[in-house]
Amino acid sequence: MDIVCLDLEGVLVPEIWIAFAEATGIPDFRRTTRDEPDYDKLMHYRMDLLDRHGFGLHQIQDVISGMRPLIGAQEFLDQLREKTQVLILSDTFDQFSQPLMRKLNWPAIFCNSLVVSPEGRVTGYKMRCPQSKLTTVKALQSCGFQTIAAGDSFNDLAMIRASKAGFLFRSTPEIKAANPDIPAYETYDDFLAAIFRNLG
């Protein structure tokens, strides 16, 4: 049985931290896993920025509440879920994901958790498991699933390469150039067709 494992940000919804950068007018928040392969380094960078500017979880959630799925993402996901099981594997956080999942008709998502003080300050984060995307794909395979994986960032490459089929979707020129063997797509129609060719 097949299961499709998708990244969230950049694939189905806009990048949360880029949206936060635009809302606050602070471009330093634009740094994402497309730019920084070391996730721990990236998160400490973000937490330092939040502290420096006096932002907490509430301000981030306010921005997320106004976000919408990428144009065409809902239709893509609906068509995909008619044909196969879909699991979103994301390095976002429980505290971020709920309003976005509501707007995508509640697909299943595995993600991480923030550590937040009673005052709303983001003080840390807890990964669901080490190498969460790759670990989850391998666990699914151990249960008899064949995985098809896709994403846009450095932290998606391991799960893509571990799957029977894998794709980059709207990734950066640098990531695509460094991984020329991974098929890359820019439109949902082409992306969906590629997944369908590899089902079964």
Could you please describe the fold and organization of this structure?
- With 200 residues, the protein is an alpha/beta fold.
- The protein has a domain at 2-12 and 70-111 and 129-197: Rossmann fold.
- 44% of the residues lie in helices and 20% in strands.
- The protein has helices at 16-24, 39-53, 57-65, 73-83, 94-103, 132-142, 157-162, 173-178, 188-197, and strands spanning 2-6, 85-93, 108-116, 122-126, 146-151, 165-169, 184-185.
- Strands 4-3-2-1-5-6-7 form a seven-stranded mixed sheet, with helices on both faces.
- Strand 2 (85-93), helix 5 (94-103) and strand 3 (108-116) form a beta-alpha-beta unit.
Shape: globular
| Relative strand content | 15-25%
Order of helices and strands: EHHHHEHEEHEHEHEH
The CATH homologous superfamily of the domain at 2-12 and 70-111 and 129-197: HAD superfamily/HAD-like
Q: What is the CATH topology descriptor of the domain at 2-12 and 70-111 and 129-197?
A: Rossmann fold
Helix content: 40-55%
Number of strands: 7
Strand order within the widest beta sheet: 4-3-2-1-5-6-7
Which class of secondary structure composition applies to the elements? Answer: alpha/beta
* Average pLDDT figure: 96
